[in-house]
Amino acid sequence: MEQNRRRAAGGKGGNYNQYVIRELEKIDTAQAEGKFEDSLKMSQKCLRTVEGWPEDAVSNYNEVLANLHSAMGNAYLELAQYDNALQSHNKDLDIAQKDDSEVLKSRALDNLGRVYARSGRYQDAVNVWEDKVPLSKSALESTWLFHEIGRCYLEMGKFAEAKDYGEKSMAAAEESKDDVWRLNSSVLVAQAEVRLGDHQAAVESFERSLDMAKVQGDEAAEAAIKKALEDVNAKIVKGLKGDEEEEEVAKKEGEEEKATDEDTQKDENEPDRPKDENEPDENKDEPAPEPAAEQEEES
What we know:
Elements: H1 2-9, H2 14-32, H3 36-51, H4 61-78, H5 82-98, H6 102-118, H7 122-132, H8 139-155, H9 159-176, H10 179-196, H11 199-216, H12 219-269, H13 292-298
């Protein structure tokens, strides 16, 4: 960073250049010490001063302005002033595009993504970081970038995409031979697998991550991964118990249904009860009584 800024302020106009270099170094130091309000004030003051100069006062005048907007954006981000941070980093991006500078454009997209992610605008972060992917200059830069995109997808509930980018991050970490990012990307894959319901795969990924944490001596990561493994194993056991209970319920319901069917069939096949000889036939007509006249003649 310091080398880039010295280059931006280098060339003719010695007094101007020395002023810019000195102020940029002060700004860097303040940010490194966490004094973001101080760094913001210094950046704003320096920007006003440089903007009052003729453009040929320093070499790479636009790059100096871009550096100052970037520094202001970083300070605003740490102060949680997200709208101001976006405004500053977008100005950095505008200068990068006008100067057709891939280096400045990559930095601006990087920083815009950080602001969007920090403020919960995950899809916006994904959009700008995906624009940055072709500008990545190393496997190490790519592994970080893929990991951050994957984290955003995880936050948005897009778990398949999160796993995909986690695996891309792992591949880039292997290429760069960076153990820290191997661990980070492996954990991301495991977290995505848990959310996808692929618990057995998640166990394998967490166990791989645990081995990495042990080798690196990262006790905090080791403890967190062990807790995650316990949670996943509990989900697996709960799932098995749930399956057994469902099978038992289904079996019981099947037995009850079978018993009901047997009773129904028994009722349908039972023969009619024999009729008692003395029992009146409700369907048979009774003989009509003889007319009274006929009875008298007979007598």
